[in-house]
Design a protein that fits this description.
Blueprint: E1 2-7, H1 11-22, E2 27-33, H2 36-46, E3 50-54, H3 62-71, E4 81-86, H4 91-100, E5 104-107, H5 112-123, E6 128-129, H6 131-142, H7 160-170, H8 175-182, H9 186-200, H10 205-214
């Protein structure tokens, strides 16, 4: 079962999302919170797999709450994965949410099926971005001068094949698409992805995308 915590300052939203997710056979809603501070406290107590996090909340906003949750390393456990939900698809929110450690970003007006799918994808360790959000993210990096993107020495630890896989991840390709592109088995791609994340100290593909663009390894339009 995938354990979910819902953080949103609107009671109707929490109840609606809760009812939708609780109706799924593989999902269980373990709690909810009306602000970011309560979300952090509840997550530490309830140990959810995924936190649905609103951006604009009182006391502590969703971005800072995400930073605190992702920074946590509970003894014997894993940090929860954060799926940002918002009505605002503004560039700053997208970029800062991913920099804060969010594993996904979905607009609240997305179909119910997309929300359920997003929770499962994020819980499984993948990254998820709405198409419109991905375009905005790439535009954000494209607007930045490349001279401000020094490559970290960590990238030198990657093999040529791993560097190639990282570029394809940044383009938004799935493991299956990368395997087809490189003419290798999908399991081989999964192995490469795991090694890339481990060598670069990244949690998931969302952070890999940010790093690839931020360091200039990939440029918008490639």
């Amino acid at each position: 079962m995938i354990r979910v915590l819902i953080a949103d300052d609107q009671a109707m939203v929490r109840q609606g999302f809760g009812a939708l997710l609780a109706a799924q056979p593989d999902l269980v809603v373990v709690g909810d919170a009306a602000n970011g501070a309560d979300a952090v406290t509840a997550a530490r107590r309830l140990d959810p797999d995924v936190v649905l996090m609103d951006v604009r909340m009182p006391v502590l906003d969703g971005l800072e709450a995400t930073r605190r949750l992702v920074g946590d390393r509970p003894e014997g456990g894993e940090r929860p994965r954060v799926l940002i939900l918002t009505t605002f698809d503004l560039d700053d929110y997208v970029y800062e949410a991913l920099r804060a450690g969010a594993s996904g970003f979905l607009l609240k007006d997305a179909p119910a099926a997309d929300l359920v799918h997003a929770v499962r994808v994020v819980a499984g360790g993948e990254a998820l971005l709405a198409p419109s959000v991905t375009r905005r993210l790439i535009a954000e990096f494209a607007a930045r001068p490349s001279r401000n993107r020094p490559r970290p020495t960590a990238l030198s630890a990657l093999t040529p094949r791993e560097t190639e896989v990282l570029r394809l991840i940044a383009r938004g390709l799935s493991n299956g698409e990368i395997a087809e592109n490189l003419v290798v088995a999908e399991q081989t791609v999964k192995t490469h992805v795991g090694r890339i994340l481990a060598k670069l100290g990244l949690r998931d593909r969302a952070q890999a995308v940010v790093l690839a663009y931020e360091t200039g390894l990939v440029a918008a339009g490639e």
